[in-house]
Specification:
It catalyses: D-glyceraldehyde 3-phosphate = dihydroxyacetone phosphate. InterPro entries: Aldolase_TIM (IPR013785), TIM_sf (IPR035990), TrioseP_Isoase_bac/euk (IPR022896), Triosephosphate_isomerase (IPR000652), Triosephosphate_isomerase_AS (IPR020861). Keywords: Cytoplasm, Gluconeogenesis, Glycolysis, Isomerase. Its main location: cytoplasm. Belongs to the triosephosphate isomerase family. The chain is α/β, with parallel strands linked by helices and about 250 residues long. It has one domain (about 5-245): TIM Barrel. The chain is built from 11 helices and 8 strands. It has helices at about 20-30, 45-55, 80-85, 100-105, 110-120, 135, 140-155, 180-195, 200-205, 220-225, 240-245; strands spanning about 5-10, 40-45, 60-65, 90-95, 125-130, 160-165, 210, 230-235. Helix 10 (about 220-225) links the parallel strand 7 (about 210) and strand 8. The longest helix is centred in the last third of the chain and has 18 residues, at about 180-195. Bound molecules: phosphoenolpyruvate (PEP). The site of phosphoenolpyruvate (PEP) has 13 residues, from strand 8.
Amino acid sequence: ANSRKFFVGGNWKCNGTTEGVKKIVSMLNNGVVPSQDVVEVVVSPSFVYLDTVKSSLRSDFHVAAQNCWVNKGGAFTGEVSAEMLANLEIPWVILGHSERRALLNESEEFVGDKVAYALARGLKVIACVGETLEQRESGSTMDVVAAQTKTIAERLLNWTNVVLAYEPVWAIGTGKVASPAQAQEVHYELRKWLQENVSAEIAATTRIIYGGSVSGANCKELAGQPDVDGFLVGGASLKPEFIEIIKSAT
Ligand code: PEP
């Protein structure tokens, strides 16, 4: 047993239409789930639907942006600043998702700078780390996730508003979920890394959530692992099974 509140994030990625988003919100609003004292639920629509979702979503669920700019806004066409998210009272932002690291060439330093800046503007951050299949097969999983975590950690003064998401790249959107033992192993090592490099208190209190092909069928066993404090869910967060995933908190 631990005092970390279970956390379930839904990453809607670049999906949705006005109608589709309404349907998902209504599915969420009608879901019967454990109370806010037991599970923290955060869904992340595209920027363009954030405001609609925020205003129509049940009050015990919260919203996250999927990205924000690394620094103060200004002449950065196409970007959205942390100040703007704070202004709209968007409480959370996902940073360092592997799709952005890989497809938009976001470097470790850039991700670390973004996390530090967003936190400084008062946002809460879901910071993502994870190894590729090649890195796993070559035995460098822990080196990779520790290096990604270190780049973030060295820029932070305070971990209170950070949730760390372990998302093995080979498991994202592939249907190849990490086994409960594989997830637990990395989560345990990440917590140990926090203990040795940040502090025992931060290690004990920081939520480390798993992401990568989480579904209604596999969530319960993953949630039972001692160092798995919740999930970041992509594909299944658009479907009614997201409610089942939230229920795995208990
Ligand atoms: C994600 O994008 O964060 C994710 C985990 O996706 P999926 O659940 O679809 O693998």
